[in-house]
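2.7 Reproducibility. Because tokenized structures are sensitive to small changes in the input, we list the exact sequence used for allantoinase, including any N-terminal residues retained from the expression construct. No trimming or masking was applied before prediction.
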Amino acid sequence: MELGDLLRPLLRGWTIPLLLFTVGYTLVYLPQIEKELDEGCSLLPDTHFVLYSKRVVTTQGIGPYSVEVEGERIVSVTKRSEAPKSLPGKPRVLDYGNAVIMPGLIDTHVHLNEPGRVEWEGFLTGTMAAAAGGITAVVDMPLNSRPTITTKEHLENKIKASKGKIFIDVGFWGGLVPEYAHNATVLEDLLDAGALGLKSFMCPSGINDFPATTAKDIQASLPVLAKYGRPILVHQEVVDPPADPAHLMQGEPVSNARSYQRYLNSRPISWETEAVRQLMEVAKDTRSGGVADGAHVHVVHLSDATNTLSIIKEAKAEGSSVTVETCAHYLAFAAEDIPEGATQYKCAPPIRDSRNRELLWKALLDGEIDMITSDHSPSTIDLKLLEEGDFLKAWGGISGIQFSLPATWTHGSARGMSIEQMSNWWSAAPAKLANLPRKGTLEFGKDADIVVWDPEASFVIDGHYPIYFKNKVTAYMGHKYSGKVITTFVRGRQVFEEGLHSPKACGSPIHPVV
Ligand SMILES: *[C@@H]1O[C@H](CO)[C@@H](O)[C@H](O)[C@H]1NC(C)=O
Ligand SMILES: [Zn+2]
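Resulting structure tokens (single pass, no recycling of outputs):
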């Protein structure tokens, strides 16, 4: 007798109950679990609805469109001169009138610092601030968590720590440090564990367990990145004395530690230029047919729009796979306006003069800078040394994730920037950098990651303004902006609406597309 013959009579009596159980479990019980999991994830009870306004940013241009959302996806984008009617049995229509409906912003440069430095910033507070700022996805930097994210184990630990604490989707850059830069196994493990790419520093990072890499270290990682089709992001400063020592002597007397000019002089443009020169040399390997064809080099937070930018332009023109970002604070502020001791403006590379700010805007508008990020880099308030006002000793990093959209809009619209250009720099281009094909535009089949905002509404960030990031020290304090976020949707879930967040944090870690 075969095994099958033995089982047959046994199964005969059980077949129908088993089948009923399986069908019942699949149809009734499983959806129940999913529904429960989802409860509290959205301020809107509907899972099928339509957003409408006269100014929707689509891939066909800006105009009156309805955007239909079902579950987590956009299922249609339709041009129509009037809002569809809300009818019984039809999906709910949310008519936002003349407000802008746009793809959610994607911020590929943020420091959430959890686990390990959660008193600086955490998943919960950082992503609450992001959601309130119209940001639907961020990619987190491998520092200043503790430990820094330089191995597979550290990344897995970090992803675990984010569970139930993120209001938006969060991806992760892995860290490239000298210890592992020449060890393909460690790098491949890190990329396999979910790092969307790598990040390194060419100067001291300020964090002991994240030492600087040389151009050679970076070069060694490129063939590994090429295999995965992922980028390396590089902090582009090297500690290199400026060619003209007189440069350091300009400005304020060296004794005045509260002088912004003194801080500015301590990190001259030549640091940025020299780092980028070295970096663009190794980026040649990414050219078609090169040993790292398929890898990509991304320059983070460009602050100098003169010599440094010229070198990047040249590398692009010669076929290297290179992109560059600048940050909202370089576009919003100028060195001359930074008061003595105002260390909330300290970041590296430093905010330069207003002439340079205009050149950064020109470079964006001319298509020479690819995208914008916040480089949200908080610390505890005491590390900013606000009373002492010592620019050299204070922690360098600006908290601004919640204000990226209004700051970009206010300063950009004054210089002729269109809403579509802003959307490209804040959504489409970063989606491309991080390889997020389901995000970045409002199109059929894409994730329903959406921000609705009012370009005309203005507000002052004062002591009463609700700030959601953990340490409420920010360069944006005291400034007036236009561009108010009305509501934010992440994969179809309404996570923020005018001062209110969804009861639960239901964002997901972003895993690489392979
Ligand atoms: C790479 O790093 C791992 C983990 O530290 C180590 O076991 C391995 O020997 C290293 N490989 C090389 C080639 O150095
Ligand atoms: Zn940073």
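The chain is about 30% helix and 20% strand.
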